Description:
Bound molecules: adenosine-5'-diphosphate
Number of helices: 15
Order of helices and strands: HHHHEEHHHEEEHHHEHEEHEEHHEEH
Largest sheet: 7 strands, mixed
Number of strands: 12
CATH class of the largest domain: Alpha Beta
CATH topology of the largest domain: Heat Shock Protein 90
Amino acid sequence: MPQTPTPREIRRTRLNQAAAYGVAIGAAGICLAFRLLLDGQFRGDVVLLLFVPALLAAAAVGGLGPTLLAGAISLLLSFGVFGFQTLGEPGVAVTVAVFIALTVAIGLVGSRLLHSSRTIREFVADAQTREAHLQSILDTVPDAMIVIDERGLIQSFSSAAERQFGWVAAEVIGKNVSVLMPAPYRTAHDGYLGRYITTGERRIIGIGRVVVGERKDGTTFPMELSVGEMISGQARYFTGFVRDLTERQAAERRLQDLQGELVHVSRLTALGEMASAMAHELNQPLTAAASFMKGCLVLLKRKPLDEDRLADMIGQGADQALRAGQIIRRLRDFVSKGEAERGIENLPQLLEEAGALAMIGARDRNVRLRYDIDPQVKLVLADKVQIQQVALNLIRNGMEAMDESPRKDILVGARPLAEDMVEVYVADTGHGIGPEAARQLFQPFMTTKANGMGIGLSISRTIIEAHGGRIWVDPNPGGGTIFRFTLPGVRDEELMDSQHD
Ligand code: ADP
């Protein structure tokens, strides 16, 4: 960027030039002193050689002008002191001519070098200013910035990253970036990088995703990660920008976006209204059924027994009870099947997002969320929103069950089963479920929580069964509960490619 010099810079340049002419005169003087000192040791035609250092000194500090001055002074002093008649001696005239040519050449080279070194100095100063500017921007943006090289080794770690992950830059620079991820990404990340470099298949690079990060103290948090790629010379670098979604403001903004996606939220709100309408609607068939029963009682006491009427009344009572059942079924259909859009979904990604969503607002709970997804598990045939709703519900239930537990670990896993089915499980280390409660767990309105509605698990069961799977609960051997459900898997790998195209 060309800049107009300030008056101070102009003054400094003039002073430097004056100093360079001073050096030229001084150096020529010193060389003359040597010449006098060594008088008689040289032939007349080589004495001028003694003045070459003066030329070099003048060229180094001032370029062409001072070198010419040093050359002229050298000639004048040399012949002024020893008499111009020496010019006539054999070879001296040629030496003078060579000396003049040398002076011009040294001056030109000096000028050129000075110019280059000035350009380099300016370039370095400019680069330093830009770097300081960039650094100050990076230090102030709330997003963390982490640069890694091709092998995944951390090259730079911004102050926001230090705040978010609890590591000091000096501790992590040079380490593998996987230290910032929970299992199983910790071990799989090198593979992801390698695959991208060899095949160009993108998972996060240039796309951005909601994933889980791990702090130095082992706690995990949801984060939004976007990664850019940079090629510098032969080397390739990746820059990750990380936004901590637990930070309230960001989380609220993100939540608002996600609410649009998660249709179930509005469905659940509607469910409240639906429940009161349903109570009203149910009242009718139930009252009617009760009246038929009472009528039957009256008929039973009459002699002789009118069996036909009795049978008719019992039949009508049963019809009313069935109508009540239909009303309840309608409610379940409304909540679960609504606008089911079943498609081929990436199960690990679906579960990661559900986990990250469940972690929003759970920062104070100190829960540690980990994944254990079998690499063979990839695609399932499912309605993404509905299955995320089930996973989210199970993870939230798990978190709530661990409020009083010393160990707060949630493990979300998936493994392939026979016949193309996939099993997903959510294990917690909470208070567990007694055998009595376990029996009615999936019944609607069964809850042990003060503010619970008791419909989460019943809806989850309807959703999973509508997908052709099943859901059940097991005790966690180490304490706590494991909820498991199955889904139909999709085996054909090509399907995934066609989705990415
Ligand atoms: P809600 O959470 O509104 O109570 P749910 O249908 O999701 O409704 O859960 C029903 C009940 O099942 C809960 O009230 C709780 O008693 C029990 N429960 C669910 N998940 C767990 C779990 N992971 N650990 C222990 N109990 C659980």
